[in-house]
Design brief:
six-stranded mixed beta sheet, alpha+beta, globular, 37% strand, 3 helices
Length: 122
């Protein structure tokens, strides 16, 4: 996986997070979204065992796209840096063509990880 400044900011900085919502789409819609994301001109992609990691520096966004073998496949999780006034926030959202219950578990894992990291910065 990538360890760029954007990755560190969105995953390990302790910034406040919000969202953790997701929507359910068809497999075709999810594939089209995936294709559009990886086709963005400044997209930097790297592959882990069951995930494709897509960093969009200009959008201050990172997508985690599941692949075969990932428990939440087929799904995508998005982390974006937003500003509310002078406060920076990481917005977390997702899309799945799989089980909503499984997607809730995956989103919950990120919520727990973010809370743990945030406590480390308190």
């Amino acid at each position: 996986m990538n360890s760029s400044p954007l990755t560190n900011l969105l995953f390990a900085s302790g910034l406040p997070t919000e969202g953790y919502d997701f929507r359910v789409v068809s497999s075709l819609e999810l594939q089209q979204m995936r294709d559009e994301i990886v086709a963005i001109s400044d997209a930097s992609t790297s592959d882990g065992p069951n995930l494709t990691f897509v960093e969009l520096e200009a959008e201050k966004t990172i997508w985690l796209i599941t692949r075969e073998g990932h428990f939440a496949h087929p799904s995508m999780l998005k982390r974006s840096l937003l500003k509310h006034g002078t406060t920076r926030i990481v917005q977390v959202s997702g899309v799945t063509a799989g089980s909503p219950e499984v997607m809730r578990v995956w989103m919950g894992q990120f919520r727990e990880q973010d809370a743990h990291i945030s406590r480390g910065f308190s």
